[in-house]
Design a protein that fits this description.
Layout lengths: L2 H14 L55 H5 L1 E3 L13 E2 L7 E7 L5 H9 L16 E3 L5 E3 L5 E2 L10 E7 L16 H18 L6 E3 L8 E5 L7 E5 L10 H18 L13 H9 L9
Parallel strand pairs: 1-5, 3-7, 3-8, 4-7
Antiparallel strand pairs: 2-6, 4-5, 9-10
Bound molecules: zinc ion.
Zinc ion binds next to loops.
């Protein structure tokens, strides 16, 4: 690639890239769904992250390398169904700037449905809204065989995690998690789906500038996953209680975060932004590299 065309491509891409300025603190948005939330206390806060991204270093003269995240392999099992899935006749999700997104919430749909069935469920009266949701409640859904459906644009604020909706996007694994006989969510997600999840979360972190610690399982969120319940017989004591297993008790979110952090470090190193080891610990150097990184391929579709 000539220097000129490389410059031109970079300039074009820069024009479209999401804004860097982010507040990495996890701040909940206002409620969308009245039924899901009760009065809330402070959400878990993460305060040690930097608030200002560094300016990108300009001495990166490496030619773009083939991305391991947004390669043909990923394309082959991807469908953009934003325009073909059922939507609510009148309701619409609120639109937001991509730059405010600092969380990716991982869910599961504990069912053996097609993507159309899932969208039908969401737009009709359901457990979230008596009159139906505007569209599918997840931006992305990963099927048991690892196929990814992109259902709703990231700029749309879907209704998936109550007060956490405003600054998050939702990625769901579709698989049978509950053993009907035992009534417990004790099936493991298919390996192909988990692998795809890790790969896709890496792309989302790159494209939306979300840190690995911003990846949360639904059950890890206060008020929608876990709640504070009064201890019976003691009006002053409350205990932390789990409302949901989502995305399934065998999805180890710590492992997911570490795997994504490693992949991010690998990619950032490949592109010349990161010099450290691939240890899965996403410290200040990795964070700086992620904020400085500029897309050379489409990581977000
Ligand atoms: Zn969930």
């Amino acid at each position: 690639m000539s220097i000129l065309s490389s410059w031109f491509k970079k300039t074009l891409i820069r024009f479209n890239r999401p804004k860097l300025s982010k507040n990495p603190q996890l701040v909940p948005g206002e409620n969308n769904t009245s039924s899901r939330n009760s009065g809330s206390k402070n959400p878990e806060s993460q305060t040690n992250a930097r608030s200002k991204p560094v300016s990108s270093e300009s001495n990166n003269t490496n030619e773009p390398k083939i991305s391991n995240e947004s390669s043909k392999k990923a394309n082959s099992s991807y469908s953009d169904v934003r325009d073909s899935l059922p939507r609510h006749a009148t309701k619409k999700y609120k639109i937001r700037a991509l730059s405010i997104i600092n969380m990716i919430v991982v869910h599961c749909t504990d069912a053996d449905w097609t993507i159309e069935q899932l969208a039908e469920y969401d737009v009709n009266p359901n457990h979230i809204s008596k009159t139906g949701c505007p569209a599918c409640t997840y931006q992305d859904v990963i099927m048991p065989d690892g196929h990814l459906y992109h259902c709703v644009a990231y700029k749309e604020r879907t209704w998936h995690a109550g007060k956490w909706n405003r600054r998050s996007v939702a990625v769901a694994l579709m698989y049978t998690a509950t053993n009907a006989k035992k009534g417990r969510p004790n099936y493991r997600p298919p390996e192909k789906a988990v692998k795809r999840l890790t790969r896709h979360l890496t792309s989302l972190c790159l494209g939306l500038k979300v840190l690995p610690k911003g990846i949360r399982g639904h059950r890890e969120l206060e008020d929608t996953g876990w709640v504070w319940k009064l201890v019976s017989g003691d009006s002053n004591k409350k205990r932390k209680s789990l409302l949901k297993w989502c995305p399934g008790q065998y999805v180890n979110m710590d492992e997911v975060r570490i795997a994504v952090a490693r992949r991010l470090q690998f990619r950032l190193k490949l592109d010349g932004y990161y010099k450290g080891g691939l240890d899965g610990i996403f410290g200040p150097k990795s964070t700086e590299a992620l904020y400085a990184w500029e897309p050379k391929n489409d990581v977000l579709r």
